[in-house]
Amino acid sequence: MFEVKDTRVLAPGIKQFVVDAPTIARKARPGQFVIVRVDEFGERFPLTLVDWNAQTGVIVLVFQEVGVSTRKLGALNVGERILDIVGPLGNAAEDARYGTAVVVGGGVGIPLALPRARSLRASGNRVIGIIGARSADLLILEQEMKAACHELLVATDDGSRGMKGFTSDVLRELLVQRMHVDYVFAVGPVPMMRAVAEATRPFGIKTVVSLNPIMVDGTGMCGSCRVSVGGKTRFACVDGPEFDGHEVDFRELGVRLQTYVKEERLALEHLQRSCRCK
Amino acid sequence: MSLMPKRPVLDRVRSFEEVALGLPEDVAVKEASRCLQCKSPRCVTGCPVQVDIPAFIRLVRERRYREAIRKIREKNSLPAICGRVCPQEEQCQGVCVLGVKGVPCNIGALERFVADLEFEEGYDHPAGRPATGFRVAVVGSGPAGLTAAAELAKLGHEVCIFEALHKPGGVLMYGIPEFRLPKRIVEAEVEYVKSLGVRLELDRVVGLSDTVEELLRDYDAVFIGTGAGLPNFLGVPGENLCGVYSANEFLIRSNLMKAYEFPKYDTPVRVGLKVAVIGGGNVAMDAARTALRLGAGEVHVVYRRTEKEMPARFDEVVNARDEGVVFDFLTNPVAFHGDSKGWVSKVECVRMLLGEIDESGRGRPVPVVGSNFLMDVDTVVVAIGVSPNPLVPRTTPGLEIGGHGEVRVDPVTCETSIRGVFAGGDIATGSATVISAMGAGKRAALGIDRFLALQQGRGGR
């Protein structure tokens, strides 16, 4: 059992949990994720490791309350316990000294961009962050990203903070106008990652994306998370979660993520009937 | 012909309750009295863990059931499971002398009979060897790991099992469906193993949360029983369409995550009206019968050879057919086609012919040119086998791996290329049976015991 040590609302519907998980904190590396099962009836679902502390034995998770599982998780209070957390899973990010690295985070992808911004900086890169959200109130961890990057650019869809537009627009402008970029990392909604990959493709810049497909076991057993990369089927859980953004079939990924939309609605209705969770 | 009473077809096709109901006492005793009590029993040599079969059957005949189960447990730590899922027709019963002219003694049903009685009445625990002070880590709690752990505990070693999933049992829990192996039986057998003093750490993925190298610092020996968890796919176009499952995913969702009780349980599984299951093994039968129970209208098993070559147990094929599963033999998928929303809607198949005998001893299936046809489907389950799980091999430098991703071991001791590290079950052999994994777990336990004794001799402890 994994005790919730701290909870914070980062934005409407987006929460950050600090959880006691010493065996995971001890081994976690940037880019890796965990699989969470909140209670006896719960699904197994992946969450990326945002931060961790091997000394204090805690991990930090950020999630948006969208479906049954994330709502159940979000309903937990400090001192309550998560039934199962397994990890760290997936391959750790490969850190090298590329030169100038751009880290792009969109929406709830921003918390996942944070450890990569830190690790790329620690590896000796000049790190430019680009973060974006629909609107200013949904833009999270701006201060943390600012501290992690040498330079931080902000965009919102409605222009309520930073530039009006998408993170991929900011990136494209950066590339067209002035900047020599050696490496791009992007994490966020599928259309965003796809747009980032398209923005860098003409420049031939190495572009890595972190994928978050549907998973069950997260250890290579089920194949639910299979993605087409360079025409080959790969399992995001054991072969990823990071892949070459220019090779990923984002259309297929987007379609597969929608597999259980109907069931998710049913499950949510069931949850709302059976308990007081919002 | 089968003695075993079964739940009637109409009752069972929409229910996950166990199909085989177990023998009534009178039938069991009568069946036991058919055993010839051979002086050199072939059944024992046919058993991968060498249970003293005539001895336990004699005890059943004499209605000394408690002693009968003790006799089995001397060699087999998971009798309620083996009584249900062992392919006895190829093992003990396959070589039974009674089978030469008539019907072999139904050893599996008798084993299940005494194991179920014990389940109802409670276990008793043999006094093991005194504690040796040695510590052994067992990786994986499937049949190989559970057996190795139980044997090692009986030998006086301190054992801790590391399991990646949130429930112990491995394939017994996530793979084999409730209607064939009730999970309360698996849970009870796991409890038995724990009652021998074995510790169990869930949610620990060795290879990631802990490496074998790290385990060797805390333990005197390590047993790897991580199984064959990696699903094989056909590698044909359209395989990543929505609605195409690996058998592993389909069964994990249904068995381990209890999707058949969705939305009481949060994990869904999508089964359309028409389901095609690709493959001809026990897993394909499990998937087909699960699909029926999840509400499919029509379930086809698509297999590239003929019924004769199917690796599935005869009994399971009969069960599937009785329940209404349709078999399309000599048929092989070459592509999956989707609708505009990215969901599978058709399987394109070709007809096959059996050519000359191949290395598996069966006719090699050859496609008939131009025989392509389309089959409407809503859901596809690919059940064409699994490969050894790569997590431990990938993260354990120095561990020798074979051509199919299997961990290389000494056939007698199960020791790997790393001193003090042993392996057995599907991770060492590729996909095989529960009982062969148990046999390997047992051999490994003896190998480890011998290894530890030598350590002691050298002043190890």
State the main characteristics.
heterodimer, A: 278 residues, alpha/beta, Elongation Factor Tu (Ef-tu), domain 3, Rossmann fold, 5-stranded antiparallel sheet, 9 helices, 17 strands, 28% helix, globular, B: 461 residues, 5-stranded parallel sheet, 18 helices
Named CATH architecture of the largest domain in chain A: 3-Layer(aba) Sandwich
Would you report the number of β strands of chain A? 17
- β-strand percent of chain A reads 25-35%
Low-pLDDT runs of chain B:
none
Taking the alpha carbons of the first and last residues of chain B, their distance comes to 57 Å
Of all chain pairs, the largest interface belongs to: A-B, 44 and 41 residues
Q: How many domains make up the 3D coordinates of chain A?
A: 2
Oligomer type:
heterodimer
**Overall pLDDT metric of chain A:** 93
Explain what you see.
- The complex is a heterodimer of chains A (278) and B (461).
- Chain A has 278 residues and is α/β, with parallel strands linked by helices.
- Chain A is built from 9 helices and 17 strands.
- The model of chain A has no long low-confidence stretch (mean pLDDT 93).
- Chain B is an alpha/beta fold.
- Chain B has 18 helices and 16 strands.
- In chain B, strands 3-2-1-4-16 form a 5-stranded parallel β-sheet, with helices on both faces. A 5-stranded parallel β-sheet of chain B has the order 6-14-7-8-9.
- The mean pLDDT of chain B is 94.
- Classes of the chains: A alpha/beta (278), B alpha/beta (461).
- The interface between A and B is large, with 44 and 41 residues.
